Amino acid sequence: MRKVSFPYMGTSYIPFKKLLTSFGNEVVIPPKPTEETISFGTKFAPEFACYPFKIVLGTFVQVLEAGADTLVSSGGVGPCRAGLYTTLQEKILKDLGYEFEMITLEPPGRHFRDLLYNIKKLINAPLTWRDYINITKFVWKQLVLLDKVERLSHKVRPVEVKKGEATKVYKKCVDMIASAEKYGDLREIERECELLYDNIEKRDYEPIKIGIVGEIYVLLEPSSNLEIEEMLGDLGVYVERSMFLSDYTISNAVMDLFHMAGERDVKKTAAPYFKEMCGGHGRESVGNAILFAKRGFDGVIQLSPFTCIPEIVAKSILPTVCRDHKIGFLTISLDEQTGKEGLRTRIEAFVDLLRAKRRRTKSFAVKPQVAKEMA
Amino acid sequence: MKIGIPRALAYYAYYPFFTTFFEKLGLEVVVSDETTKEIMDLGIEDTITDACVPLKLFHGHVRNLMNRVDYVFVPRLVSVNHEATFCPKFLGLPDMVICSIPKLKNMLEVRIDLKKSRFELFKLCMKLARRFKKGFFKAYNAYLKACLSLKNYAHQFLQGGIPPLGIVGQKKNKAITLAVVGYPYILYDPYLSLDLIKKLIDMGVYVVTPEMIAKEDKQKQVGKIRKNLFWTFSNEVIRTAYSLFEKGSVDGIIHVTAFGCGPDFIVDKLMEIDAKKYNMPFLTVTIDEHTGQEGLNTRLEAFVDMLKIKKAKKEAALA
Lengths: 375, 319
What we know:
The structure holds two protein chains of two kinds.
Chain A: E1 3-5, H1 13-22, E2 26-27, H2 35-44, H3 51-65, E3 70-74, H4 85-95, E4 101-105, H5 112-122, H6 129-156, H7 165-178, H8 183-198, E5 208-214, H9 216-220, H10 228-234, E6 237-241, H11 245-257, H12 264-270, H13 282-294, E7 299-305, H14 309-324, E8 328-334, H15 340-364, H16 368-374
Parallel strand pairs in A: 1-2, 1-3, 3-4, 5-6, 5-7, 7-8
Helix pairs in contact in A: 1-6, 2-3, 6-7, 6-8, 7-8, 12-13, 13-14
Chain B: E1 2-5, H1 11-24, E2 28-31, H2 37-46, H3 53-66, E3 71-79, H4 88-91, H5 93-100, E4 107-113, H6 120-131, H7 136-158, E5 176-181, H8 184-187, H9 196-202, E6 205-208, H10 215-220, H11 232-247, E7 252-258, H12 264-278, E8 282-287, H13 293-318
Parallel strand pairs in B: 1-2, 1-3, 3-4, 5-6, 5-7, 7-8
Helix pairs in contact in B: 1-7, 2-3, 6-7, 11-12
């Protein structure tokens, strides 16, 4: 039996584990990235590797030590470096003397046959069509539900009366979703989660709204962005992230299969500033920042791993975009050296500035009727 | 009408084409001054901190040009062949330049995407000529001359010369042969690379750069990596390195890279791992805007001396 493992990213390990076990594999669950993981990563990775590369490499070392013999990871068609992660990781790990098989899942648009061949390697149990449908349905629902409870936690955290309650509820919800067995259970859990969030005592005021854009891994994996969402929520800020795994899967795996570009509106919005696809999530960062501005957000925070090329392009453009749309902008480069307290100081200052700006614009704001009379 | 061409990034790989084309079209071509500290400082002023040095330098060269020409030529290099594209910084270059230098009003943005067919380049040239209101025959002539001049440029490299540095040919009977691999915009900018190539030649080294390896030799290495790299220049570099590993025709390889260069973390590590396998001496030199002359000199001297000793020992053992 294959002992399969995969990179750790947010809560995605729950549906992946379910998927791989029901395909008849033994799964080595990757541990949540810690200091140790990152130290493994920085030890073996090249100096200028992006932060996600280092974390994933560290995770791979840990799971290989734990006995995994097959690693599953994603590919890509570039020009972002993430598409070549597995090529290099395989080389580095084999050079270190580990024996394993690397399975790279390429996007279906250009490598459909390759993808099918690789997926076939992972199916080691006799399954009927009905089984496939049930598994897909269950896993998809789990993925969507995990994103939903996370969204709810972002919404509730800034307005909760007792600090830390939303985080507690969120963790409880994730545990419940992880322990679900049948599709029917998930529906019940969904209702229960909503109820749990409803029961949290809330204050009634309008929090500062900040949108988060940037590279997918540092957005989705809290340990790589120093739990910035929680930090912001505790400061009383409503946070909205531009990317969730379920949306990403639809726009990049499913749409790609039919050779359609996902997230078309975002790309269209970014077009005046960013005319060319440049890989990664550079253009999406710019597009989402504009969308946040149009929806009346107070600020945008860009998260990027140090030396991430598409985000550097976006970073050069975003200040102009945010000036044009009159929205606050803060960029944060993340790598293994980033300290939590330094980040907290910057974020507190940013939020204070946004608060001051809102107070000022509110007191000077001309009421609609007055504006009409003046015109 | 004056067209300004910044002496950075794609310039070093394709300048004979651009300059000849615009000249034959009847426009005046102004190339920005050779890189100096002032140009570097101008570039650093405008760019974000974690951009790589060549990119900062490009901004500097644009600033150097913008007030004395009618148009500043900023290419958006998307692809020159069907297998690979360019680093995202090339893809987003005009967008970045226009946002970072708000005073720049006369940018001539040209999107170069040649992967679709053989005639894309011709079509692009015709489009450019129409923009400057030049006739078809004049444009066609300019296009042919430009192609010829690029071919000539490539040929000069194959003869052992390095035209952008003014090196016509190198003596064959040097003590050791070293491959200096890296991107043309780092290697052939004497200020940026701290004159690394000339220093090596003065030390008695026969220098081989990626452009000096025949295309066929590079093409043979295509299947060697499990997956093609996405970037044209990186493919050149890694294929050069692999073909040299196999032939063993050089005594060592020096990889010159810019601090924080995105593609190079993959290129460098792949080469480093395989150099070990082929027992090939390998040195990585990382360059940024603060790199000091002396530190580099010491490293180069040590590397070259070691190789010379190694070679002498080997020859003694054979004799």
